[in-house]
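Researcher: I'm preparing a figure for a lab meeting and need a structural model of a single chain. I don't have an experimental structure, so a prediction will have to do for now. The sequence is pasted below. Please return the structure as tokens so I can convert it later.
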Amino acid sequence: MHEDLLLLDTIKLNFSEAGLHLMNITIGLIMFGVALGIKMENFKKVFLQPKAVFAGLMSQYLLLPALTFLAVWIFDDYITPSVAFGMLLVASCPGGNVSNFISSVAKGNVELSVSLTALGTVLAVLLTPANFAFWGGLYSNTSPLLRPIEIDPLEMFRTVFIILGLPVIAGISFSKRFPMITQKIIGPIRSISLLLFALFIVIAFRNNFDYFVRYIDWIFLIVLIHHLMALASGYLFAASWGLNRINRRTIGIETSIQNSGLALVLLFNPRIFPPELNMGGMAFIAAWWGIWHIVAGLSVAGFWAKFRPAKQLANG
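Model: Understood. Here is the structure written out token by token.
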């Protein structure tokens, strides 16, 4: 590995306290907006269409983290430790809410996409900390480049619950109690929250532009390969379950659209990742993934939309 790349791990990115608070609030607002669109019917989908839902959840929370660990283990000599942890952290996060829009562009199964996002977000409170603690700990013990690292899964659970759990509970409760108001505010809330998150990313890159220019070609390649792996594994895993093309597309998209904003929130919590761990590469991976999965997702969706099956098959 080139010595210049190892310096990436020691980088201290420029994020102000105000900026971090804005990010936390923005992620909470995004999840509140997602929850406003969650109906109990989404959870009933597990019973009405269990095969596709279970395949999607397994692809998201079992297959992707396992394949990511295998990748960082195989290419350990070519990536830095913090980049490896960044990949594992992103793979442990739930799907991002933009996956529903991308599935609609791809002519996928939007109803399945919404169900997977809803269930995946709820399960993330437990599975995101558990996945990262398991795979991150396993990598820490097998990598010759990294000293053992101990992540407090309870602290991560607490943070995920505050950022995801509470806004989701509040959103579902609000939409159930005030359905008319919900219909009026759901669109503006989602738009405002996404604009705030985009603004945060722009400011973050501006404040760290020199680092970005220095390492973007390397980070771009890693995220490109990781995202392709997520998309292809989700699609092929769905195919192995005998699901139709529409559902394969949907699960491929759900597996490759990750809530990288949550990864950034966790990363900048000093009680989870103390600054002395030298995890500069993690932030680059999470931040660039948040941009790239939208660009790549929409590109793939636009391509798929031209080849929509004539009708949805009965299976899946």
